[in-house]
Design brief:
By secondary structure, the chain is an alpha+beta fold. The chain has a single domain, classed as HIT-like (HIT family, subunit A), CATH 3.30.428. Helix content is about 20%, strand content about 20%. The protein is built from two helices and five strands. A five-stranded antiparallel beta sheet has the order 1-2-3-5-4, with helices on one face. Strand 2 and strand 3 form a beta hairpin. The structure holds guanosine-5'-monophosphate and zinc ion. The site of guanosine-5'-monophosphate has 13 residues, from loops.
Length: about 120
Amino acid sequence: MTQSDCLFCKIVEGSIPSNKVYEDEQLLAFHDISPAAPVHVLIIPKKHIDSMNEVTEEDLSLIADIHRAAIKLAAELGVADSGYRLINNCGPDSGQAVQHIHYHLLAGTKLGALTG
Ligand code: 5GP
Ligand code: ZN
């Protein structure tokens, strides 16, 4: 379930602290340590999955749950109407730095256009 050399698994286990904003049986959400916007939350499954490429049919409900959590968090953080962005980086060209699937919830300012 968890991977001993994985930063986000350590955050799930609590051996590395995080500033949590949401937690349930399957998911954890916490503030990014190096925020790229006034609101920058990471939403992760507690189950270790390397990246989007390793998501299986049976994991798809987790991905739906992450979207559900993002909608709830956006409302709680007061950015549902002003707008937000939910981003997953997958693989080297995306800049994925942590090999435990995660979604960035970014908001609180006018976000720049997405570029290649
Ligand atoms: P990626 O580039 O893999 O999509 O995003 C990884 C994110 O994890 C980055 O935005 C980075 O700031 C964040 N991050 C890296 N290490 C830590 C940490 O120890 N704690 C928290 N809260 N965020 C982290
Ligand atoms: Zn992990």
